[in-house]
Amino acid sequence: MNSNTSSRYRANQPKAIQQGVAVPGGTGLYAWTSDLEASRDVAEKDQASFAMVLGWMERFRAYIGLAAGREACTRFWKEQVKSKPRENWQIEQWAVAIGV
């Protein structure tokens, strides 16, 4: 997603989705932040990058109306991550965060 696509993508979403915040009874987004902070498997130094990619995936999932699960992760990986060239470190880090 380039910056122009990203801007249009975010501009067409409800404010709560744009901010990546789960609102009770609202967006259907899952707030990953508290899970990451409580995780014993994710180093504190990795939490911000994991939160970025998980929030990106969650907004994508909610925007296109997929249920949370493996199908949503697979589509996100194919349509958002692998659809353009990425640095190897990004692919490696994001794969760990998403579990692909």
Structure write-up:
- With 100 residues, this protein is mainly alpha-helical.
- The protein has one domain.
- The protein is 60% helix and 0% strand.
- The chain contains 6 helices and no strands.
- It has helices at residues 3-11, 15-18, 33-38, 47-64, 70-81, 88-98.
- It is globular.
- Mean pLDDT is 75; it is low at 1-25.
Attribute tags:
100 residues; mainly alpha
Secondary structure topology:
Layout (H helix, E strand, L loop, with lengths): L2 H9 L3 H4 L14 H6 L8 H18 L5 H12 L6 H11 L2
Number of domains: 1
Largest sheet: none
Helix segment tally: 6
The portion of residues assigned to helices is: 55-70%
How many beta strands in the DSSP annotation? 0
Order of helices and strands: HHHHHH
Low-confidence segments, given as residue ranges, are 1-25
Strand coverage percent = under 5%
Structural class: mainly alpha
Ends distance = 20 Å
Radius of gyration: 13 Å
Query: What is the 3D shape?
Result: globular
Mean pLDDT metric: 75
